[in-house]
Amino acid sequence: MLSVLRNRTYRHLFVAQVVALAGTGLATVALGLLAYDLAGSDAGSVLGTALAIKMVAYVGIAPVVAALAHRIPRRRLLVAADLARAGVALGLPFVGSVWQVYLLIFVLQAASATFTPAFQSVIPDVLPEERDYTRALSLSRLAYDTESLVSPVLAAVLLAVVGYRWLFWGTVIGFLASAVLVVSVALPGAVAAVREDGSREGARSLGARSVAGLRLFLSVPRLRALLALDLAVAAGGATVIVNTVVYVRDELGRSAGDVPLALGAYGGGSMLVALLLPRVLDRVADRTVMLPAAFAVAGLLAALAVVTAAGGGGWRWPALLALWAGLGAAGSLILTPGGRLLRSAVPPADLPAVFAAQFSLTHVCWLLAYPLAGWLGATAGLSTATVTLAAFALVAAGLAGRAWRGTAPAGRPAPATVTVRPHRHTHRPTRRRPLHTPSGRPVVRHHHHRHPAAP
């Protein structure tokens, strides 16, 4: 898996992702403590509102930014987003009221909604070979899981010697380091999108470009399947994120120190899959891995409902750890190959818009799952919430299977549905308008080739 780090451009981008994630993890801890300072016992309400603002920014901003991104060089866009995030983090230690927190969180998450899809769409161009790209996806998943385990520990160590407001300075350093690393490499130019009528992407209105990725995402069967799979992941993940503390403290009567152990089991299952999956995907199709994992989420949630209803017994704690590890593994089996599926489903010119659409739609899934896990768990009980989410995941898995039915086994367009357009590039390649072969390699002369049209 680590062989892809030999690519200097990708290595710098990966390290940029890691340091930015570490900074975000520190900010998450510090934000909770800041909310408690400002609101006391109402800190939960403040954080809940901040999370809602985060989701609104993610869902609404990403498609609009994707519509404008073709006008801005990729490196400049990524660096600007990092600098905006660093500026917000710099201001957070000095806020004195709740509304200021809400405003800064919106700006911070709007910048993240700009950075993340753009970053994701760059990696396929940096690593054009599918084998390398698969390993990059696994490394990215591993980075997210590692951050969820390491950042709280790092924050605890720092809090032993400094006040929580100093954690925001760690966030600033993380985002600035990310910007420096992005600046240090030359990124491939974005492929100009040319429509069937010969018009270029910039010729369409902003509104049309904003919804283009969403329309394309919902029109391609494999991408509709991916959206359904994201619903299944959200059902399992929301159960863990929202209700872990309730299961550990109230349902099982265990100490507060066991809460991070349960969350660690979830992260450990995800990390194990991220390490092993590249070799598996070298041999089997994405669908062969992803669909069974979605049904596994439903089965694991159903098993959790049984454990919840079983009442007392010391066996329930190891059972909970095993179920959490299973949910983490199943989620990673779905999320890690997702980038491969996006890459194979649309032409390179449409990747930025589709990544932005997936970013928004995935957070819509979580926005649906969080209330189901939290409100149902609080009002109707954990058993009812878990059974409901298990049914939610089962329906999502069934919809994914139905959407995927009849497509090519490897997740690529079936030959009968692909429109192949032979053509010749006649412009002289420049830095802003490079030429590439179908495999992504740059060429230096006029070039005849064929590639599939958008599905």
From TrEMBL:
Top-rank lineage group of the source organism: Bacteria
Protein's cellular compartments: Cell inner membrane
SUPFAM superfamilies per the UniProt record, alphabetical: MFS general substrate transporter (SSF103473)
Tagged with keyword Metal-binding: no
Major facilitator superfamily (MFS) profile domain span: 9-408
Biased composition (Basic residues): 421-435, 443-455
Region (Disordered), start-end ranges: 405-455
Transmembrane annotation, as ranges: 12-34, 46-70, 148-167, 173-194, 225-247, 259-277, 289-311, 317-337, 375-400
Keyword tags: Cell membrane, Membrane, Transmembrane, Transmembrane helix, Transport
Gene3D superfamilies: MFS general substrate transporter like domains
Keyword Transmembrane helix: yes
Low complexity composition-biased segments: 405-420
Membrane topology, as annotated: Multi-pass membrane protein
Family of this protein: Belongs to the major facilitator superfamily. Drug:H(+) antiporter-3 (DHA3) (TC 2.A.1.21) family.
Record protein name field: Multidrug efflux pump Tap
